[in-house]
Each structure stands twice: as C-alpha cells, then as structure tokens.
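Quick start: read one record
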Amino acid sequence: MAELEIRAARQADLEHMVGINHNSRSEFAYKLDLRSDKTSFASNFERVYLPRPVNIKYPKDETTLIHSWADAAAIFVGLVMGELVAYVALENQRIRDTARVTDLVVAPLMRRKGVGSGLLLACEAWAHEQKARRVLMEIQMRNDPAVQMVKKLGYQMCGYLDQYFPNHDPALFFDKPIN
C-alpha cells in the first residue's frame, strides 16, 4: 500500500467524506450475558460467530453527519496517493479531559490496511496536544472489525449502552489513556 498522508480536513473535503461508503460488514458480534442476585451483578460480552456475515448500517445519516462535523473540535482525513480514503472526527467538550472519536470511516477497499489505525494514532497525538487524559470511542456492538482494531491499539472496553445510536443500535465504549 502507498503511504498514508493524514492532514486536517478542509471545506473541499466534506463532499468526498460524505461520498465514502460508511456501512460495514462483520462475521462476528458480541453477546451480552447478564447475571445478578441479591448481592452482586455481573456482565460478560462474548464474541460470537454469526451464521452469515451481516451488513452494518452506519448509525448517522448524511444530514446528521454534516451537522456533527460543524461541532467537531478536529477532523482529520487520510489520503493515499492524493485520494481521500478515510476520515475521523473528534470532540472534546462533552466529557472532561476526554477526546471523543465521533466518527471514524475508512473506504471499504482500504479497510484492514492500517488506515483506521493510522487515523486513531493521529487522534491520540491530537488528544495529547489538547491535554486530554484519554481517547474515547463508541462502536456499534456488531462492528467486530472496529472492536478488533481498537483492542489491537491498546483500547480497553469501559462501558456499554443499549439503544445508544440514532438507529437504536447498542454501543460498546472503549478508551485509552493518553500520557
């Protein structure tokens, strides 16, 4: 693969960002197992193989995406050979000392080639510059490729929320401390 160039997004990039196929595909999902009794409560997420691959619709529509970008603290794009192939949007106002990844999208042909990882590393560098203590990312529960990527980069699961996304998909939350 050609070298990945990462830079701040420009107004002219927005049309290309919207044009990327935001949907994904997964062969695995996560099953939540809850147990409780009078004195304790426990939860466990088990990675399960699906009987057939599932298409995962991105949780935001085009209008919601564009509005959220207006509120972003930073947006970075990934380019390969001058072509925009990915982007990441961040915000840092809602949760104290936290840079939150609100969108991370990689064009289907560039997935599993280090592009998403490169963008997340750029997010971590930006978070460090902003004096954030951690990077937080929410991922749709069925988006196993994204879960595997953040785990590989040292992110730890820190929460779960049912019907979190606008399309009512549940979210798994992952964070990574920034030094």
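The CA atoms of residues 95 and 136 lie 9 Å apart.
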